[in-house]
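Bench log, entry 3. Co-assembly request; chain sequences pasted below exactly as received.
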Amino acid sequence: MYTQALNTAETDDRGLEDAVKAAQFQARIDAEERIEPNDWMPAAYRKTLTRQISQHAHSEIVGMLPEGNWITRAPSLRRKAALLAKVQDECGHGLYLYAAAETLGTSREELVDAMLAGKAKYSSIFNYPTLTWADIGTIGWLVDGAAIMNQIPLCRCSYGPYARAMIRVCKEESFHQRQGYEIMLTLCRGSDEQKAMAQDALNRWWWPVLMMFGPPDATSQHSDTSTKWKIKRFSNDELRQKFVDATVPQAQYLGLEIPDRGMTQDAEGHWCYSEIDWTEFKQVLAGNGPCNRDRMAARRKSHDEGAWVREAAAAYAAKRAQRQTAQAAE
Amino acid sequence: MPAANIEISETPLVLYALRRADDALVLGHRLSEWCGHAPMMEEDMALSNVALDLIGQARELYTYAAKAEGKDNDEDKLAYLRDVRQYRNLLLVEQPNGDFAQTLVRQFFYSAFADLYWRAMMNSRDATLAAIAAKSEKESAYHLRHASEWIIRLGDGTDESHARAQAAVDHLWAFTGEMFAVDDGERALIHAGIAVDPGTLRGRWLTTLSDVVSEATLTLPQNDWMQQGGRAGRHSEHLGHLLSELQSIQRTFPGQTW
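Structure output for the full assembly:
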């Protein structure tokens, strides 16, 4: 930092050199080559990916909370085991996404600390409450369904570790989605009360799920460079439309009504939906969703109350290493 | 109308399977309470794994209990439609999670027993119980390893973790005696070669405990007074709360398919 004034010439050279590297980098991306951790990459590419992958990891971890809310109340032993396994999968996704982010040079601890400090985002959808068992079905069906829509193209993302992580994540997510849909199907074939529970859950989750794809293309900040770098392959609105088109027939099969009366199909068969309330989206992002404070409080509580355990594990590992060194010296 | 309790014809074999099923379910449920709240993500994964194994064991044992009873019951009716007085689990497994040390000491005491117990049960003359034992033994061996490693880390970690681990050992010790108790119905099953006499496992159980606890620089209490009652449905106050949560949907919406 302090030598900044002394090496302007060198900086200029570096600038030229970087321009050559940047061109080579873009050529590799254009040729659909994968960028690997030790390859040269522009600082902005590294920053964008670190942000995106860590946000994705935080979403998996915070996402354990709304569904975890029903593990102890699942209505049958089979459902209990399946839900526990599902939430455990999400933790696994979080772990290998943090590992993928670490390949870009920021440690998991730093990334987690940023999230706990409220400096990093996670998906807005997890700031809504799970009120009934039907919410667990709806989350699997719609939230995981939307996540898959977003993540399938990421399997071809230009950054190798992220693309590979996504392949595994997508396989598990698609299993979760089928599981969620099956919960909905069981409810919709059940009693009037169960069907009403399913409809109520769909009513509450529909709009927040559409918001998961992010702001409309006209206002999205990151899309241009992300598209150039082949991190993003489809726009927010394109993915949202794909999701709506896939979901409408699924809702019809369940006999549920999407809470957007008068949806019609256009000439190409796409389902047209009403204007999304972006004010709500902005409020949730700003920390004012129904559960933002609860989610952060729960994460901080686990982290704080677990501090002595992590310290104990570190202290024991250090003692053991010391003993082994002492033994080897004897 | 809330769902009523089911009635069970508790023959010695039905009761025997139910007791082990209740142990596995209640402990699995307790561990599942950690999911999303553990001190580190690796433990969210590990504790969920152990919980899943135990819930799996419970399902097989309930299904077998229902079959042995030969009535209209099934795994879900047995799990969701019996109240506190009908539950037959050990007092140890229903104890609240407390801090991480208490959860791991509870697991350690139980898994050190379960590992020996299921290995011995592989020789049961009852083919179903022997098959359940073969699967459960492998799982219990892993649970024991996981818990033992944590007892050592916590005991020999920092002053704070040592104090917490010792407090957990002291607190939970009185709930271990029940694992080795046998009533008349079980004695008949032991005599028939269907069940094993848990008393014969106590020596080896104590050796496992002593080895791990001494490596952890902890000590086992000298106090021999043991709490009893879980096997006969006389529980601590904690179980009722666990069951009201576990059973809430089934009790609110009786007779439906989920």
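Chain B touches chain A through 48 residues (CB under 8 Å). The two ends of chain B are 18 Å apart (CA to CA).
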